[in-house]
Design goal:
The complex is a heterodimer of chains A (338) and B (116). With 338 residues, chain A is an alpha/beta fold. Chain A has helices at residues 2-19, 38-43, 107-116, 146-158, 175-187, 276-293, 299-309, 333-336, and strands spanning 65-70, 84-89, 132-137, 141-145, 163-166, 168-169, 195-199, 217-223, 239-244, 253-254, 264-265. At the A-B interface, strand 4, helix 4, strand 6, helix 5 and helix 6 of A face strand 4 and strand 7 of B.
Amino acid sequence: MRPVLFCCLLLLLGCNKKNNLPTPEPLYQEQWAIHYNKPFYDAYNIDPNAHIHTEGVAYTGRGIKIAVIDIGLDKNHPEFKDNIIKTMNSADGSDDVSCQHSEDCYHGTAVTGIIAANINGYGLRGVAPNAQISFIKLDLEGYAGDDEILAAFDYAEKLDVDIVSNSWGTEDVSPVIIEKINHMATKGRDGKGILIVFASGNDGKEVFNDESMLETVIGVGATDKDSLRAYYSNFGTGLDIVAPGGYNLGITTTNKRDDGNGEYISAEAPVPFIGTSASTPLVSAALALLLEKNPQLTRQQVQQRIKDSVDKIGNVEYIEGHNPYYGYGKLNVGRLLE
Amino acid sequence: MLRFIFCLLIITPAAFADVYSYKGQDVYLQKLEDDHYLNDKGHVVGISDNFFIKLDTEIAVILEKYDLEHIKTYSNNLYKVQPKFKTDVLMLIEKVDADSLTQYAYPNFIKKIQAR
């Protein structure tokens, strides 16, 4: 009997590999932001189109380098430790990206998990599980000098990354930083332009002189389980795209393991991971899949692909394709990769 | 009386404002009690004692001319420098910014930054 069972198991594994089906991740069923799961959607009364349509996508971000700039990282988290190729602390130039003594210390680990959590049979899956991550620590608690922000971008540029994912902002971006961002978005990636993605923020207000509103930046707002703009999502004429950021129901992701709350943050956690911070890595990871499929796309061509592939949600008017609350619309990964 | 109050409202912010010039345009900063400033966009910022300069020329010329110390080089001819002696950094930035040898000089603002 045992050899028969063993053979069946081998067959099953073989089928999985042949059909490129993902290994079932225990938390995958609750990752409502990236795919439709009927029992979970029914249980939480989620709009059937609240997700970003990743089902059937064969790309995994292989060969694409993403810089994540954030407060700190649990770099040995088993979900993505093999994806981390570099770490850098923008304050002192060291490779120490650990974070202590801040209630936001989980933040960089949560962002990174959304992008790169591996398909490994436990936990969850990221949208780009094979992307290479360079993590750059920037102190996001309180005040930071433009020199630290500049150092973070300078490092990302030197590492020749394809995408920079930023779940933070200042609402007061200096000309020196604007120049740096524009330079990278134009000259980086051998002249094709680095894709720089920024969260718009969670204050429910219009923002103006913010990193997310720059023309060369892909500014990201948040949607909720009803597939509408989340009430807290900042807006403005420079907003490009929205993606799930959650509200009552959060975005399932990885947690900093030594904070006493476990390895993961569940969608149903008492303190879930919500906000444009969660929406931004979904967009960054989706763009990694797009660059894996077509590495020659320029930043401008990617911005056009976003405009052409998004879902026009929200029962609002889009003037020349744009609405300040929704940008050009909601991320649809399937259509982005068509 | 109303005219007097109106004049006061106009004059008061200017009287307590620092100003520096960036690419020929005046930028106003209102000094607050705790060595911070309120900028023209309504945000509270700090000003570091170092600043940025962008050059078309060799940095050594500028360092010598303004008694500056070179702190860090960024890509694209951008540098962080610091005065060797205690000085009003905004006034110095204005002078360096107006120098034909520089593309610009700009303060290293310390600003509120937030995870989102």
